[in-house]
Amino acid sequence: MDITTHQLRCFLAVAHTLHFGAAARELNLSPSALSEQIKTVERRTGRALFHRTSRSVQLTPHGVQLVHLAQRAVAAHDDVVAWTRSQESTELTIGLMVPGLGFRDVLARATTTMPGTRWKVKHLGFLNSYDALRDGTVDCLFTARTQGEPPREFTSHAVREEDCVLVTPAHHPLADRAAVAMAEVVGLAFIAPVSNGDRVSGWLDGYGPLDVRHHAATFDEALELCGAGLGVNVAAESVRETHAHAGVRFVPIQDGPRATTYLSHRAEDDSEVVAHFVRAALAPTDDFPGRGTEQA
C-alpha cells in the first residue's frame, strides 16, 4: 500500500476545510482531481475517511485518526526536503509556468548578487507546476494570475504587474486593431490552458462564460493553435517581447484584467540561496515600485 505525500496533503486540506471546493482551490486542483485523490487514499487504507452528503462533509472516526498520522508524515517529509535543500546551497532550480519578463528581470538582478550560484530552469507549463514545487523538483516557481493568489501552502510574492493582450491569429478580424474591449473578447472562440485535465479558471472569471474550443498544456502550444486560426487566448502583455510569433498578433485589451507574476517557494524552505533570490526579486523596479505582497 503506497500513499504519496501529495495524497496526504489532499486529505488534510479536505479535513481542515470540510469542503471539497475550498480544498481544491487551496491546492490549485480541480474538484474532480481532488475527489479522485481522496478516493485513492480511502481505497489504499481500506477505510472510509469522510461522510459525504449533498449538504456537508464530515470526518469519520477513521478520518479523525488519520489526521494526526498524516500531519506527522507530511511534516517528516518536509523536514527531509528542507534538510536536503540545505545541503545544496549553491544551486537553485527555478520552475516557469509561462516564461516572461517577470522571471527574466528577477534572474538578471539575482545573477549580479549571487555570482557563485548554479542556475537551472525548468519549463513546466500549465500542468502540475505547483506539484513540481511541492515535491521539490524546483526550489522556486514563477506563475502569472489575474485573480486570486497561489495556493496558501506556499510563500508567494508579487514581482510584476502588467496589462493583458488578446492573442489572435494574424488573419483574425481584430488582429490589426489598436486595442479591443473585453465585451469584444468574451464571445470569441478560445484556446484555454489546462491543469490536471481541466481548464484553468481565474484569468477571465467574472467576464462571462467562454466559448472554449481547444486546450493547451503550455503557452507555446496555445500560440501554435492561435497561429493555425483555431481560436484566441488572453495573456500578459510582456509576451509580445518574449514570444514573438509570425502567425499571431497581440492586441491590447483596454478594460481587461491586470496580470500579476508571482514568485512562490515552499514555506518551510529556509535555505539562504532561496532567501537571497527572493530578496533580489523584491528589489524595487520601475515596473513594480511597490512590493510586499506575501502569503504563507
TrEMBL record:
Cited PROSITE patterns: HTH_LYSR
Record-linked Pfam families: HTH_1, LysR_substrate
Alphabetized InterPro entries for the sequence: LysR_HTH_N, LysR_subst-bd, WH-like_DNA-bd_sf, WH_DNA-bd_sf
Keywords tagged on the record: DNA-binding, Transcription, Transcription regulation
GO molecular function: DNA binding; DNA-binding transcription factor activity
Gene Ontology CC annotations of this record: protein-DNA complex
Domain called HTH lysR-type: residue spans: 3-60
Family: Belongs to the LysR transcriptional regulatory family.
Name of the protein this chain belongs to: LysR family transcriptional regulator
Species, as recorded: Kocuria soli
Lineage, highest ranks first: Bacteria, Bacillati, Actinomycetota, Actinomycetes, Micrococcales
